[in-house]
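Support case: user asked for a sample of complex input and structure output to validate their parser. Sending the pair below.
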Amino acid sequence: MACNSGNCQSNCSQNEQVAQDDSIPAPTTGSDDGANNQQQQGVCLKCKVSPPISSGGGGSGDEARFCGDCFRTNLFGKFRLAVTSHAMITPSDNVLVAFSGGVASRVALQFVHDMQQRAQRNYEASKDRSLPVFGVGVAFVDESTVCSISNDEVEEAIQEMKSTVLELAPPVKQFHVVPSVSLYSSGSSDEKDRLMKLIGAVDDVTGKDDFLMHLRMWALQKVASENGYTKLVLGLCTSKIACHVIAATVKGQGYSLSADIQYVDARWQVPIVLPLRDCTAQELNILCRIDGLKTLQLVNDHPSGINGLISSFVRLLQEENPSRESTIVRTAGKLTPFHFNRLPEINDSSVPLATLRRQKRYNLKPQESISSESFCPICNSPVINSDLPSCGSLKPFKFREFAASCCPSCQFQILPQDQSSMKEFYSLLPEGLVSRSKHKDNDNLDMLREQVQDCLLSNSDDET
Amino acid sequence: MEEGNKIPKSASSRLCCRCNERKPALKRPKTLEQICRKCFYEVFEEEIHQVIVGNQLFKAGERVAIGASGGKDSTVLAYVMSELNRRHNYGLDLFLLSVDEGITGYRDDSLETVKRNEVQYGLPLKIVSYKELYGWTMDEIVKVIGLKNNCTFCGVFRRQALDRGAAYLKVDKLVTGHNADDIAETVLLNILRGDVARLSRCTSITTGEDGPIPRCKPFKYTYEKEIVIYPCSYCKNLNQNHTYAYFKKLDYFSTECIYSPNAYRGFAREFIKDLERIRPRAIVDIIKSGENFRISTSTKMPEQGTCERCGYISSQKWCKACVLLEGLNRGLPKLGIGRSRGLENGNGNRKDMEQNGDVRSIESKQCGSLDF
């Protein structure tokens, strides 16, 4: 009997075969994907051609919905949108990628490289060679002196990173290994001792963790500015930012929170950009896996103290609701940013008009005129004026002045509490940190002056 | 894991840090200082007095209702308020206001405690009940809607119940026993749930000044642990975790609401408990962060109007309590729960009842499947 339709009512064997096939359950990948799978029958939702990454069951929602190519395109799309809409990387830039070996910074490096390669191809293909290709460097902060990692482990890791960076050429990228002690100006013989004593002076477990993080940032800034880099790319992803939101809240840093989580952070000498801000750790993990991107984990990923508590808390919330991290970041994104959370308008003629226009559109309008913010010399967060003592009350001693200029959070968890320990702590600080706190005030003054320049009648500062 | 104790230990660390005379009886949860019993009472009461005075919470001659559930926070609040009122001559007329949600085995017992408090502190008591106001007890509500959204119903109903009770008593202010832990939890919850509007309001010590009745929280900076230590009692401790049995004998009822285990707030509460163990001051740090968040004042705040059905304050045409009640009365337990998405939703379900109260025929609707 010829049957070619499922509607055939007769009890032919064909019908039974079809019935049997239908009864095989589609691969279950997640309770909310069950319905989709029944319909899609194992094809990528986007291109409807290739099978999804995990067609055999298991895996997260994304792996069951998209094929490898579409997933990568999607993720790279988020990266590219962040970069172009905030003019993070322009042709005249020299970009330094902070690299820890972890998943996020590996993806950041890869995507920056892909973008650079594309620009290189365009450059070679164009007749007039008008748009130069931006430069890329990679920096790894070697904290082996202050963390309990063996020298061999670090050496091995560094070699691996070197080879990774070498593979990502052309275009060639310079690889900088930045030891923590580089914060001290070269020539001081006892820098390692000073650094160890400095870290050791911090009692609080969480404070020590955070202090190391701040020192890491200062080291990156130092290598970036000394080598002529114009932007610093961090691989901060949605998940890490969600943890930071909770951490800042819990440490009393609610005021400065909005400064840390924007796409652009220009309060530093070398502005920081976060192109992976909209990508979750899970997505980055999937990409590393499907593309075979090598990652390594030197620093302990389970910090103790409050930071560890927070990452397990956020993990718990994420298990309960997979979109919780994004919600947290979105909420924090509604806080008012600061004036330095946008890049200064580019006046470079080599930058294409489209980029300029886009930057103007996405640049956050200043809600208020530039206020003269004071910044904590340790963590560089803006300090509310009410938290600062009135001038002149502590003049005689530099270390007291320094301590008073720090934010309340650093004062509590990093600075030693008694006078003599504080004095010693101050003496152990790298010179850059100490002198920087004085420079910042001048910068603010310059910025203010720029704003009111057209109203000033005299150029001299000592007007009465 | 406790971090390094920030308090420098003096040579003779065996005496109370405040009076240096008596032996310390406890380590203060807020500051980890070693302190004797008498000094603890004094410091506890003094700090609350400073909060009241420093934030100008009351004016002489005001009639003030104390939201009293019979639990530890409101019992201590009632005691401390009447004590400070007397000691510092605030000149306030104090009342106890209690809400009966109709939860058997929980609220009926705690109300007995409040009735005893009325006698013990000499404060007139008024009880308002859900049954009286809305025609439903929480027991009945939970039978209909289950255990998922019951806290939403109870919270919304309680707010209005307190306001109505306060209006009956003709009081000028309402004080509640919300403590530092509660407010810290609320700050975290609002971050987790994306509610920026609430985030900007939840750390205020006084709220609702432009509403029917202003409410304040004198315990804003008081730690829950200290409130528990303050009044320990010998009797009636069904879930008592603490063993400071030799302190002030205040009568209070301590159990968790029997319907609460599934509340989302539980996540935040566990986290804060763990946090307090590592760094006690983190609780006030959270509150401080909440106060300092840069939230634009031009953030769209809801417009204030009145409910068409009952006249209560509302930003929508019907107040939330009326919406929920309507749902209950019509057998639509999900009415008013979740975000409003407009009339049609993508799956082609039949139209939901509009929020402006137009009554549509409900024969074709399925109970419980309509989400706004």
